[in-house]
## 1
Amino acid sequence: MSDKKRETFGSKLGLIMATAGSALGLGNIYRFPCEAGANGGAAFLIVYLVIALLIGTPLMVAEFVIGRRSKSNPVGAFRCLASAKSAWPLLGYLGVLCAFLILAFYTTVAGWTLGYLGKAAAGHFSGQDLPAIQRQFADFTNHPWLPVVCQLAFLALTAVVVMRGVKDGIERWSKILMPLLLVIMVVLCVKSLTLSGAGEGLAFFFKPDFSKITGRVLISALGQSFFSLSIGMGALITYGSYISRKDNMVSSAVGVTLADTLVAVLAGVIIFPAAFSFGIQPEAGASLAFTTLPMVFQQMTGGYFFCLMFFLLLVIATLTSTISLLEVIVATLTEELHLSRAKSALVGAAGTAVIGVLATLSFRTGSPLHLGSSTVFDLLDHATALYMMPIGGLLIVLFLGWKMNGLRKAIYLIIRYLAPVAIAVIFVSQLLMR
Ligand code: TRP
């Protein structure tokens, strides 16, 4: 496809903001505390930080470079950069499949944020005690159709923005609203840290017990960093393909990694002290963020307003993430199958909806949508974060490090040697240490 037909981001800031928009989302505020809570708190945090900076940033650069050089979707990118008959384009297809599967379970929780925005507006949390707020979460996720309607509404919203294209849709949204989310999170932090018993939660999150670092912790941290930074499946190849030639991608990648990590850590500093203060288990899983946060809000002066603003911004942060996932599918369908943007967005959203509804319904107690002890939701989450993204990321760094020429900077040494070895070791170690 000729360069003229493709859109590009308006500026370097546009790329940074769109990538940050993709990175910041439920991965930081919902999934990170879940994973940290289940994997030993501070021990997980340390492993996470090391992996995000040492593997995450270089992999992000790798995706940008592949996208910028090929100016193409993940499938087209590997076809264009590798020899035509090689198997590399399959890696692109793996990415597109991964985007589908992530979007399917991601929109489950995205739907909850929409539902919780409604609850916040209706003032459902004010004056409620912990059991009542826990019951609200159980009632909401167990409701026969409400979470499904919220999920479908979220998908529709995503499709509408994606249809309008890169510049108008993605770039504009991200630029204005992400900084605002940060402000609210800082306010929340202050409140959480002043709750009685906050110290215990801080210790859980910041005082590492290194004996807790197991193979499971390593792979969880790897999967979480890939998930949170939107890497390992081609989303950033797609965004990289919208970069104009001259921009410096290393500084953009470092900036986005730092911002994403900051928001995840802030989420931890909000959620763990509050959880310990209210007597919520850090291993509470799916309900952790959705019970802790409303509890904090309803103890704050102006809690109604802050709660409403928070869920509104969370919906938007989540939307800029679902946009990037759907964009992978849409870029591939428009360029590979020559469908129109609108048709591609509809096909992508409808395909996602089919699996996504199963993930949402699998949360209901007694739902038959289980395999062994895992729900469809967990299966999709684990298949993508613990398997597909690490494998995808490994192959992406191998491709850039060993198949492409003309890479000189120090960061390519990491991409060539350190990142592949580290990913492979973590991936294999957790397979062996079960
Ligand atoms: N990174 C996003 C988050 O943390 C989720 C996300 C968006 C994503 N696009 C992705 C995850 C691509 C993996 C791949 O909420």
## 2
Amino acid sequence: MDNTMKALPFDFTQYDCRLYPASVNRMDDGGWAFMAEKDGEDLLIVMGSQAGEFKGRSFRNGAFNCVEASLSAANAKTLRKKFPFTAPVPVLRRDRSFGLGDRLGIAGEGHLQAVDEYNAYPVLAQQSIRELDLTHRGYEDVLDAASWAVFRHGYRKGFGADGDHLKKPEEVEYALELGFTMITLDCSEHIRSDVNDMSPEQAADECLLTDELKECYLDQHFDVGEGNVITFDEDSLRRCVLIYSKAVEFVSDIFKKYISGKTDQVDFEVSIDETPTPTLPLQHYFVANELLKRGVKIATLAPRFCGEFQKGVDYIGDVDRFDSEMKVHAAIARHFGYKLSIHSGSDKFSVFSSIGKHTKGRFHVKTAGTSWLVAMQVVAETDPYLYREVHKYALTSFEKAQKYYHVSTDITKIPDVDTMEDKDLPGLFSQNDARQLIHITYGFILSDKDDKGNFLFRDRLYALWHKNKELYVKHLKEHIGRHLELLCEG
Ligand code: ZN
């Protein structure tokens, strides 16, 4: 890379900018492309006969025609064509994959520095429709941010793009059209949550087991390996059918319509995690087996584990029980040939080594909001005045935000920021209630406007993050690194 950079025939004395050395690339016509920061803004500079294919200002440098291209959507599209390593690929089939949602579109560099140190493959573009709505972004924009980050960093090992928690056929279509390489199908609207409260008699009334189901599941021992055996009785089988059969049909329909023809280009994940009731190992087995019977090929499945995986805070629940169930869930996934996917995986430090160990280092873990929290911690560190303002606004938006996220935050436990010293503000990010407050109110903080139609905070926040981008990269690398460290040692 150093040699490529040294060979770059660009005269910087005629053009004042700061080069990103790892972004220097050769074009197939003998031209060059690289990224640089100029007047506080990142740009792409293309030299040679293909420069005109990018939209921007033309200029001459030495013997070359050049174009100074903004990081626009049109230019990102061309970039992905010219440099295929900036386009997403399916990464779930690799052992360790890690979802790194970036709600702000500025976390790519920190994420890449974190995964560089571990043998893990990132899904850099990963947003749910809920996140898109709350941040007023589209998948185009999410993917573009990832492509530019990859090019600037010189990252060539491949990254994924996940249409996360999609619930409707048209959402799946939208993500696929843009070249997303992973679809996470959220089945929560097809999973019944009232079945656990039923008595065996009620369950029997509601579900008549067919002969086919009885023959398939009853009086059998399903050995999923390493001493893990799954058995069903009539009642547990009925409950599986009642809870999951609609979800299974939904997955099967979506798979046949959108995925089956392109399993080499797209990873298909089934998520049954966003429900109030945990997925018992035998229910996991049932879902997997029913999908197999219907010819559905999945890359990952996200069960709802016991205990609670709340956003942005450590695991809440019985760690020993989690460990023993994780062992069986991991064995089932291996048995059927896919990986476990762990959602809301940020900050679950007390269970990462259990996940790493039982999955034998083959896992997918998703994080999203934690990178936003790190960004807000940078605000608390560098501009206490602005932080206090945002924090107080978050308190007023908390109730509305709870409609979107399930958290057990007690905002009365959060210290009053007006009586805190500046230097203590970053410490709020070690307190669960304060973390969750900021975690779930991002949509309001980023999008709300005053009477005149100006953003309340958005512009000031982005200006601050831009000014402190090295600090953000450093914190992000450390924080994401801590996740990977524990997962990989397990
Ligand atoms: Zn989820």
